[in-house]
Amino acid sequence: QVQLVESGGGLVQPGGSLRLSCAISRSGFAINSMAWYRQAPGNQRELVAVITSGGVTNYADSVKGRFTISTDNAKNTVYLQMNSLKPEDTAVYYCNARPLLPVGVDYWGKGTLITVSS
Question: Which mean pLDDT values do the consecutive 10-residue runs of the chain (118 residues) have?
């Protein structure tokens, strides 16, 4: 059984910062990658940032230079530090974990809402 629980969402003014956390409880599977996705109203879910088990990161162009993904393996937690937030960052943010095996499986958190507004 795998559970992903996000925290850290809320309301923030433009230009502000937030840090999201995702605690991953797992039972005996190795993680291939962890990621953050987001979905704004009326839009499809999109990849925000991903980090592999080897520490390689990749970001959506819209957040490069502003967001940072990181992990604390001892705590089985993945973070998303978000700086210089913009109104267009408003969305529900979802944590994702992809195991090495079986291939093609994704685990998701329930999501946390971030609203960027003055």
Answer: 90 97 81 94 96 95 98 88 98 94 91 96
The DSSP result for 33-57, as a single string, is: EEEEEEE-TTS--EEEEEEETT--E
| Residues ≥6 apart with Cβ < 8 Å to 116 | 12, 13, 14, 16, 85, 86, 87, 88, 89, 90
- Tell me the C-alpha distance between 78 and 71, whole Å: 4
**Contact by Cβ (8 Å): 49, 80:** yes
For residue 40, the number of C-alpha atoms closer than 13 Å in the C-beta half-sphere is 9
Q: How far is CA 31 from CA 52, 59, 115, in A?
A: 8, 19, 30
Q: Tell me, what's the pLDDT at 100? A: 87
Q: Give the model's pLDDT for residue 27.
A: 58
The structure tokens 């629980």 sit at 5
Radius of gyration of the chain (CA): 14
